[in-house]
Amino acid sequence: MLLLKNCYYVATFDEKDTELKNVDILIEGNRISKIGKNFNIESNYTVQAIDCSNLVILPGLVNTHHHFFQVLTRNYPPVQNAKLFDWLVNLYKVWKNIDEEAIYYSSLIVLAELLKTGCTLTSDNHYLYPEGITEIFDIQLEAAKKLGIRTALTRGSMTMGESEGGLPPDSICQDTDTVIKDSLRVIEKFHKKEELAMRRVILGPCSPFNVAESTLTESEKLARSYGVRLHTHLAETLDEERYCLERYGVRPLKYMEKLNWLGEDVFYAHGIWFNDEEMKILAETKTGVSHNPSSNMRLGSGIARVKEMLEMGIPVSLAVDGSSSNDTSDMLGEVRTCMLLQRIKYGHDALSARDALKVATRGGAKMLGFDKLGMIKEGFGADLIGINIKDFQYAGSLSDPLAAIVFTGYNHNVDLNIVNGKITVAKGRVVGIDEEELVEKVNEISLNLIKKANA
Prior knowledge:
With 455 residues, the chain is an alpha/beta fold. The chain has two domains: 2-59 and 376-427, Urease, subunit C, domain 1 (Roll); 61-367, TIM Barrel, CATH 3.20.20. Helices cover 37% and strands 20% of the residues. Strands 1, 2, 3, 4, 5, 15, 16, 17 and 18 form a nine-stranded mixed β-sheet that branches. Strands 6, 7, 8, 9, 10, 11, 12, 13 and 14 form a nine-stranded parallel β-sheet that branches. Helix 2 packs parallel to helix 3.
């Protein structure tokens, strides 16, 4: 049992957007039990009390799109100034050599970075499968289990390599039958339907320009037969739009609509270049968009119409995207970028700090199918974060403690992270790992991969 004592400020993000001062939060097991003051706790319970008198407490942030393995090529010189298609072609030369060790340690450090910056639930889209490596999903979950983070990973895939007009080398692609067979395996082995499941599975063929139509069709059938969600990249760049028009004769969303990829169980990464008609279709079908502002800026892809999407009722969540296109896994920093980027497109009041945080909490939890997360509410899952608002970087901002964590600050690390009722970050440090040792290991793997690619 955890007792968060005298919380300086609590943003619940409940249906009324309730915000509280100087309250306690009692956590029993993996749920929030009580919110208030002076709880009568039976003496036979062991209670761990945490002083939160300096902390702003809010629901854990939810990251709905990532590529963990890309942390190994952060800041890679050949792609620092490249647009998406050129960026991919150059990086495939490095990524094609990843192995099980690279997958495990890249997952571990990304998940740790996400936890340190306020994420409690994350997705991932691992789409490349080098020859001889099959159980990638299992390796990623091993890392997640070690750190205690909640996951809804996608079984990604690419099935259309260079020989079939796609961008990736054939050596990191699979055929549709192999993809569907392993997708079935991971669903039956790992997907949990309970409302506070620690592990869920999503099917995520990568994109229209590296996945065969059969992969998209068979993935859709399998996902809906098991009640799991569907995810892919869509409408990220104008190059993708031209590719779909030339190859399929239609725009990207029309192509996906033809394959039955619309609905509340479908969400797309990026969604920058949807036109007015397509926006209406997304709204009518409640098809979601995972917004990746830093990545979109980094690659010069464009600015998604998030303000309009929210006004139209299109489900929107937030994500950091791959660590080679961001190049961080800074979840709290992404909230700030989300807010500021919409103001560039729509003006000074386009998105407030609270709007951006709501997208990153309630929006993400709902998009990944977790109806009992994304709010601080009695009976909801105990996924919470705490940020020390009395820190140097927030001085002078206490007139609005919640907005302060978005508008101000230069270090987006949280002081406290609780996932499923268990502490995963304490006083800014990830529980259960040697952070410095992990950094050294990842640097070693990264440099070896790059050296091999350049040999």
